[in-house]
Amino acid sequence: MNTNIETKCLHAGYEPGNGEPRQLPIWQSTTWKYSTSDDMGALFDLEAEGYFYTRLQNPTNDLAAKKLTELEGGYAGMLTSSGQAANFFAVFNICTAGDHFIASSAIYGGTYNLFLVTMAKMGIECTFVDQTLSEEELSKYFRPNTKAVFAETITNPTCTVLDIEKFAHLAHSHGVPLIIDNTFATPVNCRPIKWGADIVTHSTTKYIDGHGISVGGAIIDSGNFDWMAHKDKFPGLTTPDDSYHGIIYAEKFGKAAYITKATAQLMRDLGCIQSPQNAFYVNTGLESLHVRVQRHCENALKVATFLKAHEKVAWVHYPDLPDDEYHELASKYLPNGTCGVLCFAIKGGRERSIAFMDKLKLATIATHVADARTCLLHPASHTHRQLSDEQLAEAGISPDLIRYSVGLENADDLIADLSAALDSI
Ligand SMILES: *Cc1c(COP(=O)(O)O)cnc(C)c1O
């Protein structure tokens, strides 16, 4: 049925048959039983579909992933143990030692570190670029061994909106896929595949879970990238896999090639699977996602408007504010609202921003974002602590920046909390 996204949030994925449980069951089992040795052998050869071991696949995970895949308008999807694992797998599935990829310098600090430090140790090099540059300027960063382009729909923590079409065109004109981390926007507010992205990732830990109860991630493939048309660039998908009796993923699995390879090779060998219990939370979170995201955005706009008018506030950055630098891009890609996260600073610099944070009573200081409860942190002292001042500047993070994640409380109560803290400094 071709339903609207709100209906898909409730009904996509698990579709119970007659007399079956109404809610998605949790397959709390490591293993599956088979009658004959050949039955199970066929699964190991990727000749038959089915489950055998939860390190690779579990039905609860697959059904929750199926819902998210439908919400994103993708072809195939998988859940991972965390957002970090999702972004690592998304790139590592197509990049190997000696390869290079391009990422926006404004991405989440954890991903930045993964790409800059850890993947470099594997021989995979990432060049970080200013995502506001023109396509022509960005083209200069491509090399013959460049295999992917990576960016976030709305960056964490600076809340800049990506020109997705520009990035999709850039990636495709160099014969590589565009990978988009859509964590902050969620498929409710933006579906990057519609704008040309090939692969979408999520930290489901954020709005999708929504309640700060489980860490998880997801990868959704549009199935649109033609690996065979760029055969030499992606040998992992276009040449025989010796660890599966010479299967060629792109030939055997077509649009499902990328996710099948990530499951069959990366999950098998690295085992970053989400627990079925957490996949159940993801599925439950997705059911109310459209209601929560709308309220997060309404509240955030009220808070941003209050802060913007306050004399002690140096600046506010929230793309839904009509005079924000990124309002035009937000209106195009996220017409129903961006997200509940905004950033701002107190006049007087870093120390005063920190002093103000300590005065808040309702909003709590937490290493979290996109949660039902309002929380905040100071990236320069917390999430981005490892970065040098130069790297902070490159990521667009000023030392006084406060990341404030607006929850589902009554906006008047949040404003009263902010107002009292501002009065006291
Ligand atoms: C939190 C976050 C991640 C990492 O996700 P985890 O679930 O914490 O591993 C990746 N990307 C973005 C945009 C995030 O906000």
Task: Describe the protein.
- The protein has 425 residues and is an alpha/beta fold.
- It has two domains: 5-285, Aspartate Aminotransferase, domain 2 (3-Layer(aba) Sandwich); 290-423, Aspartate Aminotransferase, domain 1 (Alpha-Beta Complex), CATH 3.90.1150.
- It contains 16 helices and twelve strands.
- It has helices at residues 5-11, 37-44, 59-72, 83-92, 109-121, 135-139, 164-173, 186-189, 235-238, 249-253, 257-270, 276-309, 327-333, 350-359, 389-394, 411-423; strands spanning 76-80, 100-104, 125-129, 146-152, 178-181, 199-203, 217-221, 313-317, 341-346, 364-365, 375-377, 402-405.
- The strands form two sheets. The chain has a seven-stranded mixed sheet with strand order 1-7-6-5-4-2-3, with helices on both faces.
- Strand 4, helix 7 (164-173) and strand 5 form a beta-alpha-beta unit.
- The longest helix is centred in the C-terminal third of the chain and has 34 residues, at 276-309.
- The radius of gyration is 22 Å and the shape is globular.
- The protein starts with a helix and ends with a helix.
- The model has no long low-confidence stretch (mean pLDDT 96).
- Residues 82-84, 87, 108, 110-111, 152, 156, 181, 183-184, 203, 205-206, 215, 217, 369 line the site of pyridoxal-5'-phosphate.
- Pyridoxal-5'-phosphate binds next to helix 4 and helix 5.
